[in-house]
Protein: DUF2089 domain-containing protein
Amino acid sequence: MSNKHQWLDSLTPDEEAFVKNFILNSGSLKKLQREYKVSYPTIRHKLNTIIEKIREKPDRKNNFNQKLMQLVIDEDISLYAANIIMQMYKEEKDD
Structure:
């Protein structure tokens, strides 16, 4: 596949289904939230992850944040803990 469409190959089957549902729901995150029975931040994070794949060049910070938020979604850590970790990461990068 050409570089132009390389992002399509990077999508998981779940992400492909999400894109299809996103289109069928006219881009309404509220409708997707109800359909998937998850919170708005979870739907927003899933969409942001796909957007980064489409951009093909996620920066290191966004990649770190995405992985951290996936831990929150998977309920491996709390949102509160994730926010503290993100703040510490940002402070370390700024030094």
Q: What stands out?
A: The mean pLDDT is 84. The chain has six helices and no strands. The radius of gyration is 15 Å. The chain has two domains: 1-58, 59-95.
